[in-house]
Amino acid sequence: MKTYSQKASEIQREWLVVDAQNQVLGRLATQIATLIRGKHKPTYTPSMDGGDFVIVVNAEKIRVTGDKANQKIYYRHSNFPGGLKRTAYKVMMQTHPERIIYFAVKGMLPRNRLSRHIIKKLKVYAGESHPHASQSPKVYAVKG
After folding, report:
1. CATH number for 51
2. 84, 77 in Cβ contact below 8 A?
3. What pLDDT digit, counting tens, does each position of 67-117 carry?
4. 97 Cβ contact partners less than 8 Å away, ≥ 6 residues apart
5. pTM over the 0.85 mark
6. C-alpha span between 51 and 65 (Å, rounded)
7. Which of 30, 38, 75, 76 has the highest local Cβ count within 10 Å?
C-alpha cells in the first residue's frame, strides 16, 4: 500500500468558530493548533497546509490554571542592545487579550516556513462578534 500524499488541488478548507469562554488556555490552544494544521483530517500531509480556518471569539474570557495569572510573562526583543521587553499576563489580558491565544497557538506549531503560513488562518477576537459571517463558519465544540 502506498503512502497518501495530498495535493494542493485536493485541499478543502472549512471555517470553524471556537468559543474560548471559560476554556483553559493550553488545552484550547492544542486543539486549535491541530485544526489549523489539518491533523484532524485523514488526508493530513506534513508538508502541505491542509488545515481549516479557525475563528476564536471571547478571547477575553479565557482562563489559566494555577498562579499563571500572576506569574506568566510574555517576552519580546527589539534586536537592539538592552531591548528586552516584558509584559505580564494581566497587562496583556487588559490591553490585547487576543494575543494571548495567538502566542499560545503559535508556540505549538513547528518552527518552519509552513507554520508562518498556517498561523495566518487563525483569527482571534476579544469579544463575541467577528467579521467573518460571510464565510458561514461552523461552530466547533471544544473537547474537554
Report:
1. 3.90.1180.10
2. yes
3. 999 999 999 999 999 999 999 999 999 999 999 999 999 999 999 999 999
4. 59, 60, 62, 126
5. yes
6. 28
7. 38
Helix (H) / strand (E) element for 22: namely: none
- The answer as to whether 73 is a domain residue is no
List, for residues 27-72, the tens digit of each pLDDT value.
999 999 999 999 999 999 999 999 999 999 999 999 999 999 999 9
Residue 144 lies in a domain: no
Q: Terminus-to-terminus CA distance in the chain, angstroms?
A: 36
Query: What are the beta bridge partners of residue 55?
Result: 17, 123
Which residue is listed with cell 521587553?
A: 85
Domain assignment of residue 29, yes or no: yes
